[in-house]
Amino acid sequence: MRLSEHPILNFERVRGREVTIYFEGNPIKAHEGETIAMALHAAGIRTYQYSTKKHRPRGLFCAIGKCSSCLMKVNGIPNVRTCITLVEDGMQIEMQEEKPLLPETKKPPKWKEPPRIEADVIVVGGGPAGMMAAINASDGGAKVVLLDENPMLGGQLVKQTHKFFGKREQFAGVRGIKIADILEEELRKRNIELFLETSAIMLLQNGEDKLVVGVKKNKELIEFKGKAVVVATGAMERMIPFENNDLPGVYGAGAIQTLMNTYGVKPGDRVLIVGAGNVGLILAYQLYQAGVKVEAIVEAMPKIGGYFVHAAKVRRLGIPILTRHTILRAEGNEKVEKAVVAQLDEKWNVIPGTEKVFEVDVIALAVGLRPSIELLHQVGCQIKYVPELGGHVVIRDSRMETTVKGIFVAGDSAGIEEATTAMLEGKIAGIGAALIAGVASPEWLKEIEKAQKELEVFRSGPFGRKVLEGLRKVVVK
Q1: What distance lies between CA 451 and its chain's CA centroid?
Q2: CATH (domain of 414)
Q3: ∠308-309-314 over CA atoms, to 5°?
Q4: Same-domain pairing of 364 and 375
Q5: Do residues 258 and 286 lie in contact, with contact meaning Cβ atoms separated by under 8 Å?
Q6: pLDDT digits (tens, 9 = 90+) for 179-223
Q7: Is 331 inside a domain boundary?
Q8: Is residue 111 part of a domain?
């Protein structure tokens, strides 16, 4: 079901031309500019594939191309990430049940050298950190290339309808969706070469040069050569263990935000949210805005983890927040139909007899993120496990440069924080990359120092203590 009314967003204005795609041979109406997974979900289709061994149904989970739940066969090509692949008129989509095989060809294609794009700075990731890195590297005099595997810029910002906190210079009082527009406008004013729908699959050190190998639209191989690289690949949703956690209808919180706020598709009718941090609390309000009923928020901790202002808003809506509760299992045949939760004692054990059953068709997991560091690991950056920052992160210095010279990191791939810190880190990394590339003047060091001070102020509150503790473990002088 598509959303037609929303208190903030106008989907009818931004939806593209209507086209027809075919799922298992049956015609489905879709709109240009939306992804295959969104179109299927809008048509009521929840199962996108079956697992190869036990043939269990699989559906959308992350909606940002970082898991395997939505892989399908598209126009005969298997393992297409339908959550980040745009629809095209006449497209043929099929479910995958067995181990997929590439289509047979009469004659193997001849190998040809991929085109090579050269720049001073290559930025991988078009979210808040990546866009700020590209903007500042360009302002520092660098020739910049930015690539992102999604069909649009903005990263997590494009699904954030709430207003940001902080200072005016850091977009306080501005909704995330508007910040994405502002940054994209600034990006396009500059001579920055953009490659959307382009997945970075390899990062190599080639002497003094860095080489990023990308694949555009699942078809074209491209090499990007630069003097410095900023990796701003963000994060991916965490999963928690419970019975039937693989059923269609169990989503990461970000996937639900993508459905509702980016593409105007209703995720379901009744939702249970797991996790009462800021993401879970904000998601509850966003679901309310989209006309979706939130049955409850369950939180294993003894207290709410998010800001009081968010929790108060949720409680005013009459949504119960059950602390010291956890989800035991999802129930349903081919998709979620019920969720069973129970209370925990002080030793985190389930208290018998406290089970509660919720009639829901969506279970939203707002249980945290983990940094996406695959490219950084691949190129040989030093990695350390730091729970305060969300998991495995790279060692870096105060300018966001990793242990591999010329490789920088910023945003959630450096540690899970807020979009505001991602933008400030992106600014620091972008300027640092331009300096390493030899194009920025030493005067730009003042801008790095300014951004570093702004980061210190932003992290000085009670919610920044854990992050600062983590940073002491990974930031070297």
Answers
A1: 24
A2: 3.50.50.60
A3: 95
A4: no
A5: no
A6: 999 999 999 999 999 999 999 999 999 888 999 999 998 888 999
A7: yes
A8: no
